[in-house]
Design goal:
Strand order of the largest sheet: 4-3-2-1-5-6-7
Low-confidence stretches: none
Largest sheet: 7 strands, parallel
CATH topology: Rossmann fold
Mean pLDDT: 89
Helix content: 40-55%
Radius of gyration: 18 Å
Distance between the termini: 32 Å
Number of domains: 1
CATH class: Alpha Beta
Order of helices and strands: HHEHEHEEHEHEHEH
Length: 247
Protein backbone atom coordinates (compact mmCIF):
# COMPACT_ATOMS: atom_id res chain seq x y z
CA UNK A 1 0.00 0.00 0.00
CA UNK A 2 1.41 3.39 -1.01
CA UNK A 3 -0.30 5.62 1.58
CA UNK A 4 2.34 7.47 3.63
CA UNK A 5 0.38 7.30 6.89
CA UNK A 6 -0.06 3.54 6.55
CA UNK A 7 3.66 3.01 5.97
CA UNK A 8 4.53 5.30 8.88
CA UNK A 9 2.22 3.45 11.28
CA UNK A 10 3.75 0.08 10.41
CA UNK A 11 7.25 1.43 11.00
CA UNK A 12 6.21 3.05 14.29
CA UNK A 13 5.14 -0.35 15.62
CA UNK A 14 8.57 -1.85 14.90
CA UNK A 15 9.98 -0.40 18.14
CA UNK A 16 12.22 2.50 19.19
CA UNK A 17 13.51 4.70 16.36
CA UNK A 18 15.39 7.94 15.93
CA UNK A 19 13.77 10.83 17.78
CA UNK A 20 13.02 12.81 14.63
CA UNK A 21 11.13 9.85 13.20
CA UNK A 22 9.00 9.59 16.33
CA UNK A 23 8.35 13.34 16.16
CA UNK A 24 7.32 12.96 12.52
CA UNK A 25 4.82 10.28 13.54
CA UNK A 26 3.34 12.55 16.24
CA UNK A 27 2.97 15.28 13.64
CA UNK A 28 1.01 12.89 11.43
CA UNK A 29 -1.30 12.04 14.32
CA UNK A 30 -1.95 15.74 14.95
CA UNK A 31 -2.77 16.23 11.27
CA UNK A 32 -5.25 13.36 11.42
CA UNK A 33 -7.02 14.79 14.45
CA UNK A 34 -7.22 18.23 12.84
CA UNK A 35 -8.71 16.66 9.73
CA UNK A 36 -11.32 14.93 11.85
CA UNK A 37 -12.15 18.09 13.83
CA UNK A 38 -12.65 20.11 10.65
CA UNK A 39 -14.99 17.50 9.21
CA UNK A 40 -17.01 16.46 12.25
CA UNK A 41 -17.07 19.37 14.68
CA UNK A 42 -20.46 20.68 13.54
CA UNK A 43 -22.66 17.59 13.58
CA UNK A 44 -24.28 18.16 16.96
CA UNK A 45 -25.41 15.31 19.23
CA UNK A 46 -25.08 11.94 17.51
CA UNK A 47 -25.47 8.22 18.11
CA UNK A 48 -22.84 5.92 16.61
CA UNK A 49 -23.81 2.56 15.12
CA UNK A 50 -21.21 -0.22 14.83
CA UNK A 51 -21.39 -3.48 12.92
CA UNK A 52 -19.96 -5.64 10.17
CA UNK A 53 -19.19 -4.34 6.70
CA UNK A 54 -20.04 -7.78 5.26
CA UNK A 55 -23.82 -7.99 5.63
CA UNK A 56 -25.74 -7.36 2.41
CA UNK A 57 -28.94 -5.42 1.87
CA UNK A 58 -31.15 -8.51 2.13
CA UNK A 59 -29.78 -9.62 5.52
CA UNK A 60 -32.02 -9.24 8.63
CA UNK A 61 -29.25 -7.44 10.52
CA UNK A 62 -29.01 -4.87 7.72
CA UNK A 63 -32.72 -4.20 8.02
CA UNK A 64 -32.50 -4.03 11.81
CA UNK A 65 -29.69 -1.47 11.65
CA UNK A 66 -31.65 0.61 9.15
CA UNK A 67 -34.80 0.54 11.27
CA UNK A 68 -33.22 1.34 14.64
CA UNK A 69 -31.16 4.16 13.13
CA UNK A 70 -34.27 5.71 11.60
CA UNK A 71 -36.05 5.66 14.95
CA UNK A 72 -33.04 7.14 16.76
CA UNK A 73 -32.81 9.79 14.06
CA UNK A 74 -36.40 10.80 14.83
CA UNK A 75 -35.25 11.71 18.36
CA UNK A 76 -33.11 14.46 16.81
CA UNK A 77 -29.75 12.69 16.85
CA UNK A 78 -27.37 12.54 13.91
CA UNK A 79 -26.35 8.99 13.01
CA UNK A 80 -22.62 8.32 12.78
CA UNK A 81 -20.95 5.14 11.52
CA UNK A 82 -17.60 3.95 10.29
CA UNK A 83 -18.78 5.12 6.87
CA UNK A 84 -18.43 1.82 5.01
CA UNK A 85 -20.80 -0.85 3.65
CA UNK A 86 -22.93 -3.44 5.46
CA UNK A 87 -24.33 -2.43 8.85
CA UNK A 88 -22.71 0.97 8.51
CA UNK A 89 -24.47 1.61 5.21
CA UNK A 90 -27.77 0.41 6.68
CA UNK A 91 -27.51 2.80 9.62
CA UNK A 92 -26.67 5.78 7.43
CA UNK A 93 -29.49 4.80 5.10
CA UNK A 94 -31.92 4.70 8.03
CA UNK A 95 -30.89 8.24 8.96
CA UNK A 96 -31.50 9.42 5.41
CA UNK A 97 -34.92 7.71 5.41
CA UNK A 98 -36.15 10.12 8.11
CA UNK A 99 -34.15 13.22 7.25
CA UNK A 100 -31.64 12.89 10.08
CA UNK A 101 -28.02 13.88 9.56
CA UNK A 102 -25.92 10.96 8.31
CA UNK A 103 -22.18 11.03 9.01
CA UNK A 104 -19.28 8.65 8.43
CA UNK A 105 -15.79 8.34 9.89
CA UNK A 106 -14.15 6.01 7.37
CA UNK A 107 -10.83 4.17 7.62
CA UNK A 108 -8.19 3.62 4.96
CA UNK A 109 -7.27 -0.07 4.81
CA UNK A 110 -4.90 -2.14 2.63
CA UNK A 111 -8.04 -3.33 0.84
CA UNK A 112 -9.57 0.10 0.71
CA UNK A 113 -12.98 0.53 2.34
CA UNK A 114 -15.08 2.93 0.28
CA UNK A 115 -17.64 5.20 1.88
CA UNK A 116 -21.29 4.30 1.39
CA UNK A 117 -23.68 6.47 -0.67
CA UNK A 118 -25.94 7.53 2.23
CA UNK A 119 -23.68 10.11 3.87
CA UNK A 120 -24.17 13.85 4.28
CA UNK A 121 -20.52 14.17 5.26
CA UNK A 122 -17.59 11.84 5.87
CA UNK A 123 -13.92 11.96 6.72
CA UNK A 124 -11.41 9.23 6.00
CA UNK A 125 -8.81 8.44 8.66
CA UNK A 126 -5.56 6.52 8.27
CA UNK A 127 -5.03 5.64 11.94
CA UNK A 128 -7.50 3.32 13.66
CA UNK A 129 -7.01 4.84 17.11
CA UNK A 130 -7.66 8.36 15.80
CA UNK A 131 -10.85 7.14 14.16
CA UNK A 132 -12.03 5.46 17.37
CA UNK A 133 -11.37 8.57 19.43
CA UNK A 134 -13.35 10.71 16.99
CA UNK A 135 -16.27 8.28 17.05
CA UNK A 136 -16.32 8.44 20.85
CA UNK A 137 -15.76 12.21 21.01
CA UNK A 138 -18.91 13.11 19.12
CA UNK A 139 -21.21 10.31 20.34
CA UNK A 140 -23.86 10.42 23.05
CA UNK A 141 -24.59 6.69 22.72
CA UNK A 142 -23.40 3.55 20.88
CA UNK A 143 -25.50 0.88 19.21
CA UNK A 144 -23.50 -2.31 18.58
CA UNK A 145 -24.83 -4.76 16.00
CA UNK A 146 -23.25 -8.06 14.89
CA UNK A 147 -19.75 -7.66 13.53
CA UNK A 148 -16.20 -8.91 13.70
CA UNK A 149 -13.01 -8.07 15.58
CA UNK A 150 -13.27 -4.36 14.83
CA UNK A 151 -16.79 -4.11 16.22
CA UNK A 152 -15.83 -5.95 19.41
CA UNK A 153 -12.71 -3.80 19.76
CA UNK A 154 -14.77 -0.60 19.66
CA UNK A 155 -17.36 -2.08 22.05
CA UNK A 156 -15.00 -3.38 24.75
CA UNK A 157 -12.53 -0.50 24.58
CA UNK A 158 -15.35 1.96 25.16
CA UNK A 159 -16.68 -0.10 28.07
CA UNK A 160 -13.19 -0.16 29.59
CA UNK A 161 -12.81 3.61 29.29
CA UNK A 162 -16.21 4.16 30.93
CA UNK A 163 -15.45 1.62 33.69
CA UNK A 164 -12.13 3.29 34.52
CA UNK A 165 -13.57 6.81 34.43
CA UNK A 166 -11.48 7.91 31.45
CA UNK A 167 -14.58 9.05 29.54
CA UNK A 168 -18.11 10.04 30.50
CA UNK A 169 -20.66 7.34 31.11
CA UNK A 170 -23.11 7.02 28.23
CA UNK A 171 -25.56 4.35 27.06
CA UNK A 172 -24.37 1.38 25.02
CA UNK A 173 -26.89 -0.93 23.34
CA UNK A 174 -26.04 -4.35 21.93
CA UNK A 175 -28.46 -5.73 19.33
CA UNK A 176 -28.48 -9.22 17.84
CA UNK A 177 -28.96 -11.13 21.08
CA UNK A 178 -28.69 -14.53 19.41
CA UNK A 179 -25.45 -13.57 17.70
CA UNK A 180 -23.98 -12.23 20.95
CA UNK A 181 -25.31 -14.91 23.31
CA UNK A 182 -21.84 -16.23 24.23
CA UNK A 183 -20.63 -12.70 24.95
CA UNK A 184 -23.70 -12.05 27.11
CA UNK A 185 -23.02 -15.27 29.02
CA UNK A 186 -19.37 -14.31 29.49
CA UNK A 187 -20.30 -10.86 30.80
CA UNK A 188 -22.63 -12.56 33.29
CA UNK A 189 -19.76 -14.89 34.28
CA UNK A 190 -17.51 -11.88 34.91
CA UNK A 191 -20.14 -10.42 37.22
CA UNK A 192 -20.44 -13.72 39.10
CA UNK A 193 -16.67 -13.93 39.49
CA UNK A 194 -16.63 -10.23 40.52
CA UNK A 195 -14.13 -9.19 37.88
CA UNK A 196 -16.62 -6.46 36.99
CA UNK A 197 -19.12 -4.68 39.24
CA UNK A 198 -22.92 -4.61 38.85
CA UNK A 199 -22.79 -0.85 38.30
CA UNK A 200 -20.60 -1.47 35.25
CA UNK A 201 -23.77 -2.81 33.62
CA UNK A 202 -25.98 0.20 34.39
CA UNK A 203 -25.75 1.77 30.96
CA UNK A 204 -25.46 -1.48 28.96
CA UNK A 205 -28.58 -2.91 27.32
CA UNK A 206 -28.86 -6.18 25.37
CA UNK A 207 -32.02 -6.25 23.24
CA UNK A 208 -33.46 -6.83 19.78
CA UNK A 209 -36.37 -4.44 20.39
CA UNK A 210 -36.12 -1.15 18.52
CA UNK A 211 -38.64 0.37 20.94
CA UNK A 212 -36.45 -0.59 23.92
CA UNK A 213 -33.39 0.94 22.29
CA UNK A 214 -35.20 4.22 21.62
CA UNK A 215 -36.62 4.32 25.17
CA UNK A 216 -33.18 3.58 26.68
CA UNK A 217 -31.46 6.36 24.73
CA UNK A 218 -34.31 8.81 25.32
CA UNK A 219 -34.24 8.13 29.08
CA UNK A 220 -30.54 8.89 29.36
CA UNK A 221 -30.78 11.88 27.03
CA UNK A 222 -33.53 13.47 29.11
CA UNK A 223 -31.62 12.92 32.35
CA UNK A 224 -28.12 13.79 31.15
CA UNK A 225 -26.32 17.14 31.57
CA UNK A 226 -23.72 15.89 29.09
CA UNK A 227 -21.99 18.49 26.93
CA UNK A 228 -22.52 16.11 24.02
CA UNK A 229 -26.21 17.12 23.96
CA UNK A 230 -25.47 20.79 23.26
CA UNK A 231 -26.41 22.23 19.84
CA UNK A 232 -23.88 22.00 16.99
CA UNK A 233 -21.01 24.47 17.09
CA UNK A 234 -20.92 27.14 14.41
CA UNK A 235 -18.47 26.82 11.54
CA UNK A 236 -15.98 29.67 11.09
CA UNK A 237 -15.72 30.62 7.44
CA UNK A 238 -12.46 32.48 8.09
CA UNK A 239 -10.90 29.10 8.95
CA UNK A 240 -12.31 27.44 5.84
CA UNK A 241 -14.88 25.50 7.89
CA UNK A 242 -18.19 24.47 6.36
CA UNK A 243 -21.51 24.06 8.16
CA UNK A 244 -22.79 20.51 7.88
CA UNK A 245 -25.79 20.31 5.55
CA UNK A 246 -27.93 17.39 4.47
CA UNK A 247 -27.07 16.12 1.01
Amino acid sequence: MSNAFFREEKKFMEGARARWKEFKYVGGVVMQFLKGFRGLHFIGPCVTVFGSARFKEDHPYYELARKVSAEIGKLGFAIMTGGGPGIMEAANRGAKDVGALSVGCNILLPHEQKHNPYLDRFVTMEYFFVRKELLRKYSFAFVVLPGGFGTLDEFFETLTLIQTGKIQRFPIVVMGVGFHKEIIAHVQRMMEEETISPEDMDLLLFTDSVDEVVAHIRKHAEGSPSIKLEPPRKAAWLLGERKLKRA
